[in-house]
Design a protein that fits this description.
Chain B: One of its GO terms (cellular component) is plasma membrane. The complex is a heterodimer of chains A (337) and B (288). By secondary structure, chain A is mainly alpha-helical. Chain A contains 15 helices and 2 strands. In chain B, α1 crosses α9, α2 crosses α8 and α3 runs antiparallel to α8. The chains are: A mainly alpha (337), B mainly alpha (288).
């Protein structure tokens, strides 16, 4: 018993290597199964978005229900550059990340003056106004959206028509880079200060730090990640419209993935996306054609159950039950002696 | 621009304004008493509208007559939501409260679509339909009914909250829950009551809206977002603030919708909200 539980510090590393290997090799199994491949790609994409949300919402404790906005701005910038100016998606990438980042920082200036629910409502309002502007803005296709020109297959054009596996690896690469970056951030001074913003803003202020500055930095990182995910989405589906990239449901989902998995934890958003995306996709298929939204029925119910019984997310639950097992083992050992 | 036009805009603006105000007062009452924002508030509107519609088409009960019934039903629904869901997250963090009501929002929307489908319904030829012509002014009856009904409901609500013993207890619980408890006020009962009354307010708004607005699973989102803005603009927990901001927003969106653009009529409202909280982060009447 002691042997099996005595190396908890190495367990995450082993798990990481195993999960990493599975993710790398997964396309070998599902490359010729479009449904599964698409779903796996979506899991990676949503996990990336959840990671982005987590920087501000999880580490920084600023709950935003408007993060779909930065995803949408990245997606639209990429689409506009491609459609209107014929810019290669790779060359457009920096600008498509910069636009949502700058917008987010600008928005942060008024919004970070607000606390608690005032902040939540403000993020909602900002995102919703932008959604409404995009639905009437003719230059970007208004409610109909923009369709990207189809270019020859290949890495240069960021378009893969026959075999969609490269999209999977691109999404995996993006998630890996983002997760690594957030891991480093979590251990750095910035990560420490961000958690301090979440836990006790006044204490941080009394030490001479400006919470506003660290919130803005978190917002910028967060929006940049969402923007990059938006670029990927545009190139993946070759289409943008207000509902699919700026809709309110996206903002809610992104926050939900992070919170279900465990807000403020490194792997929470990944776990959240890995549970919820397949659940939604499979239930949609199982009840397809009924047009009755059974997947959302299950979703809503699940969200309530989690909010009531597992408010600190799946990760918190796992680590707590692992902790109590360890404690049980230790006390047993104590009794044995 | 003519006098007739001003009157028409004023009536429909006030009609929408009082409806927003009722929805917002329900929200702010719940928030004031226990610090929870009900993100499923829009779905309460949707349920009230479906109830009004179903009473009309299945039993032929006119919305005017079914209004008390819908209000009573929504009051009970508010109690159920409190006892089944909200009570369990009261001790939790803000994020678990947000997500409990968000889950309820998603669930109710999906449930409505599951039962009724995604089709749009409308209450046709009810008693409160058609127009009134007075001196060249054409006023839709449902708008007049909205002004009269919603302002009447607001007055009754004010009497309930500020002139009755239950209202005093509610306000006491919202000002200081612990002190209220030492005075023998049952906090949990007051919480439940706040949810009941909050939902009942929405019931009035929904019943009036059903006379002139389409009914579909996502209809709540249209109204509730502006109600959130009204609550934040007025100051979370402030009933006066919600009333004033609700009426202001109703007038604003009708005037802007007429003169500028009907698609963008909400954007200036949002900008106004952001401008106000930039100066006063607690809203117009919020407590700090």
């Amino acid at each position: 018993m002691i042997q099996t539980t005595s190396s908890p510090s190495r367990a995450p590393l082993v798990a990481l290597v195993v999960v990493g290997a599975i993710l790398l090799l997964l396309p070998l199994v599902i490359a010729d199964r479009p449904f599964e491949l698409r779903m796996a790609t979506l899991v990676l994409l949503f996990a990336t978005m959840g990671q982005g949300w987590n920087v501000l919402g999880g580490y920084g404790g600023q709950i935003s229900i408007g993060h779909g906005l930065y995803f949408g701005l990245g997606a639209y910038t990429s689409a506009v550059l491609s459609v209107k100016f014929g810019v290669n998606p790779w060359l457009g990438l920096p600008l498509a990340i910069l636009v949502p980042t700058l917008y987010a920082v600008a928005i942060g200036i008024p919004c970070f003056r607000l606390r608690g629910h005032y902040f939540v409502i403000a993020t909602l309002v900002v995102a919703e106004s932008m959604f409404q502007v995009f639905t009437v803005w003719d230059w970007v296709g208004a409610a109909i959206g923009l369709e990207l020109p189809v270019r020859p297959d290949g890495w240069l054009n960021f378009q893969f028509h026959r075999d969609k596996t490269p999209y999977y690896y691109l999404a995996l690469g993006l998630l890996a880079v983002v997760t690594f970056g957030i891991w480093r951030m979590g251990q750095s001074r910035l990560g420490f200060l961000l958690r301090a913003v979440r836990d006790d803003e006044e204490a941080l202020r009394s030490l001479g730090f400006s919470p506003q500055v660290y919130k803005s930095i978190a917002m910028a990182i967060s929006a940049a990640i969402l923007g990059a995910a938006g670029v990927f989405h545009t190139q993946y589906v070759l289409f943008v419209d207000p509902f699919s990239v700026l809709g309110l449901h996206l903002s809610v989902l992104v926050a939900l993935f992070a919170i279900l998995g465990g807000a403020g934890t490194l792997f929470g958003p990944i776990l959240g996306a890995a549970i919820l995306v397949p659940l939604s996709e499979y239930s949609r298929v199982a009840f397809s054609g009924s047009g009755r939204n059974v997947d959302l029925l299950i979703y809503g119910f699940l969200i309530m159950v989690i909010a009531v019984y597992r408010p600190d997310g799946v990760i918190g639950w796992l680590s707590r039950s692992a902790g109590s097992r360890r404690r049980a083992g230790a006390s047993m050992k104590g009794q044995g002696q | 621009m003519s006098e007739q036009l001003i009157i028409q805009l004023l009536v429909s603006g006030l009609g929408m304004g009082f409806i927003f105000a009722l929805i917002a007062i329900g929200l702010t009452l719940i928030y004031g008493v226990m610090g929870v924002v009900n993100f499923a508030h829009g779905e309460f509107i949707m349920l009230g509208m479906y109830a009004t519609y179903l009473a009309y088409v299945t039993w032929g009960v006119d919305p005017v007559l079914s209004l008390p019934l819908v209000v009573a039903l929504m009051f009970c629904f508010g109690l159920v939501v409190y006892y089944v869901l909200i009570r369990r997250v009261l001790q939790g963090s803000m994020q678990s409260q947000i997500f409990a009501t968000f889950g309820l929002m998603v669930f109710l929307q999906a449930a409505a679509q599951f039962v009724m489908g995604a089709d749009y319904f409308a209450v046709r030829n009810s008693w409160l339909s058609g127009v009134v012509k007075l001196d060249g002014v054409v006023l839709p009856v449902p708008h007049i009914a909205a002004v009269v009904g919603a302002s009447l409901a607001t007055v009754l609500l004010y009497l309930l909250v500020f002139r009755t013993s239950v209202g005093r207890q509610l306000r006491a619980a919202s000002q200081d829950a612990q002190a209220a408890a030492t005075l023998g006020i049952n906090g949990s009962l007051m919480y439940a009551f706040a949810w009941g009354i909050g939902a009942a307010c929405v019931g009035v708004a929904a019943s009036l809206l059903a006379n002139f607005y389409y009914i579909f699973p996502r209809v709540g989102a249209v109204f509730v977002l502006l109600a959130y803005v009204a609550v934040a603009l007025g100051g979370f927990g402030s009933i006066h603030g919600a009333l004033l901001a609700g009426v202001l927003i109703g007038l604003m969106q009708v005037v802007i919708g007429f003169f500028v653009s009907s698609e963008l009529k909400y954007v200036p409202v949002y900008l106004l909200y952001l401008a106000v909280v930039l100066v006063r982060p607690r809203g117009l009447f919020g407590r700090s």
